[in-house]
Specification:
alpha+beta, seven-stranded mixed sheet, 11 strands
Length: about 240
């Protein structure tokens, strides 16, 4: 498909050692590679319980463009929003190395939109360890290969609290934007005027986002959220 406590540096050092030095006892692990296939099966099936169960209780996620966070609730939040948006994924394992009860997987990923189009692609590395005889993901980091352009939108709203509420919770506007080429949206509010608000949008499909903004669905969302149309301004990033 993301700081570190006392254990994390040890895990990271072992990952580097396994990959670079191949110490005695480390070896390719078909078992770890096979267990890892369960991740993509759970994600594409929308089975968030099965997905979260593949992580240790104290797992740490290091997502792109986001802070590191800990725990299975973070797994649910990070991937649940993607599942709700109808996204699917493809993974390719390049290495699966284990030594005793710890190992790592290195590979590549693709994120597919509801129509099957590739919305993102990149690479990942997972640190696994055995807990109660089962392989679990203890650390998960991934990042994109695709340069992501940004779009900035500013506008006034009738009621800031009402508008902000639309960007919070499981059915927030984040999901709608993710379905239309904008997997990451950061929300801003003026310190001087609470009703002056804005969005900083990472865009993977500009045509899809533009179509949303100009569609009846987009117009209805703006009206429902109290966006004052006449105040809306759109800024594109200068490369």
């Amino acid at each position: 498909m993301k700081r570190l406590d006392l254990v994390a540096p040890v895990l990271f050092t072992l990952v580097v050692a396994l990959g670079a030095c191949a110490p005695a006892g480390s070896q390719e692990s078909p078992e770890l590679a096979q267990v890892g296939e369960g991740w993509i099966e759970a994600f594409n099936a929308g089975d968030l319980d099965a997905l979260a169960a593949m992580y240790t209780e104290d797992t740490r996620l290091l997502p792109p463009n986001g802070e590191m966070a800990q725990g299975r609730d973070v797994v649910r939040a990070a991937f649940g929003e993607m599942i709700d948006a109808g996204l699917k994924a493809e993974l390719e394992t390049i290495e699966a190395i284990a030594a005793a009860d710890i190992g790592y997987k290195l590979g590549t990923f693709k994120v597919l939109g509801p129509d099957g189009s590739v919305m993102d692609r990149g690479k990942f590395i997972e640190v696994w360890k055995q807990v109660g005889g089962e392989w679990k993901i203890a650390r998960d980091i991934w990042n994109s290969d695709v340069p992501t352009p940004s779009l900035m939108i500013t506008h006034n709203v009738a009621d800031a609290d009402h508008w902000l509420a639309a960007w919070q919770g499981p059915d927030s506007r984040h999901g709608m934007f993710a379905q239309h080429g904008a997997p990451s949206v950061r929300v801003f509010q003026s310190l001087q005027d609470p009703n002056r608000t804005g969005l900083l949008i990472s865009v993977t499909d500009m045509d899809a986002l533009q179509a949303l903004l100009e569609s009846p669905q987009g117009a209805a969302a703006k009206a429902e959220d109290g966006v004052i149309d006449a105040s809306l301004q759109v800024f594109s990033e200068i490369q």
